[in-house]
Amino acid sequence: AAQPQRSPIMRQFKKSSKLDNVLYDVRGPVADEANRMESEGLRILKLNIGNPAPFGFRTPDEVIQDMRLQLPDCEGYSDSHGLFSARKAIMQYAQIKHIPNVSMDGIYTGNGVSELINLCMQALLDNGDEILIPSPDYPLWTACATLSGGVPVHYICDEQAEWCPDIADIESKVTSRTKAIVIINPNNPTGAVYPREILEQIVEVARKHQLMIFSDEIYDRLCMDGHEHISIASLAPDLPCVTFSGLSKSHMIAGYRIGWMILSGNRRCMEDFTYGVNMLSNMRLCSNVPAQSIVQTALWGHQSVEGYVRPGGRVYEQRNYVYEALNSIPGISAVKPKAAFYIFPKIDVKKFNITDDEQFALDLLHQKRILITRGGGFNWHEPDHFRIVYLPRMEVLHEAMEDLADFFAHYRQ
Ligand code: PLP
């Protein structure tokens, strides 16, 4: 009988070295440990991901109904920029936000803003090119900049100034290799909304050093207490700007995967970049078509999110509660978020003898079965912060805050 062929010992397949410095801790090692604990039958309260639907937030019925009706017509690929109807609706949205010099060919839909962040970083950055990114940040920006070979340079957002960007710090970090600046407004993880004066100062720095501006505005419809959201692109008609938004958060449909980006302002100086964006956009064929088909209805129909963020609404009331509860814990302090659904409290690390925020997150998980994301997960360079997602219902938050207070009352003391 024929002998079975002996296979040689297979070589190891290592991940690409491009990933060596890429970090995405929102779903990182502590979250893996939480999943492991869940698989053993333990109940974990997950306050780590900004995913509204599992916490009972619903999109307006008309959006779902619209998708149902349109589904049979969404079998094919769309234009790689996106459906005409979706882009037209986004164009009108851009007009309302006073974003100048927008045309249909400068609008792209994506499988969430996530895909478009990656696409832009790949299109813009050569090895060693620097890009200014906030600290703390939504970590996908740093991850995608790194993956594309660029160098993320973090500028500080100042907790003492309600988490606004520190303009002097930005200015001090510009070098001859800096190509762009990223702002996240409203901000994840801090909940800050930037006032006009701050945006104008950022524009001034970008103008002086000829930087491209990327503005992630996915939470623009979740502002509270009357805070007005201003698109930075509306203040920079002479500069190359890319503005990102989508329906994941404002319409509570993160699972449908629909976002967009809008090129505006000085389009001439980004012709070559646009060529690159078009190439990458073509290479991914198009974004999810059923999700594109509801953009028009979602943007211009009933805005259920408005009810959530005004007094009496769930996001508003939960924010107030969590803010008060955290600040009443000895050793914890937090700035009141103005938008979105995150809070980024500060820990008195001396009091609790904390030097490693991952260990702190693991200790909290093991002792109280609460999963948060450590500050380091947002490229914050001290072990003294963490992020809480305050989407769960009030009774769940009550329990979580009591557990948290109890945890800190005994932690390392
Ligand atoms: N930008 C920010 C600031 C976010 O917080 C998130 C998701 O949490 C995203 C982008 C990604 O959103 P999308 O669901 O559109 O990919």
TrEMBL record:
Keywords tagged on the record: Aminotransferase, Pyridoxal phosphate, Transferase
Cofactor list: pyridoxal 5'-phosphate
Superkingdom, natural source: Bacteria
Gene Ontology MF annotations: DNA binding; L-alanine:2-oxoglutarate aminotransferase activity; pyridoxal phosphate binding
EC number: 2.6.1.2
Primary enzyme class: transferase
Family indicated by similarity: Belongs to the class-I pyridoxal-phosphate-dependent aminotransferase family.
Name listed for the protein in its UniProt record: alanine transaminase
Organism: Slackia equolifaciens
Full protein segment contained here: 154 to 566 of 566
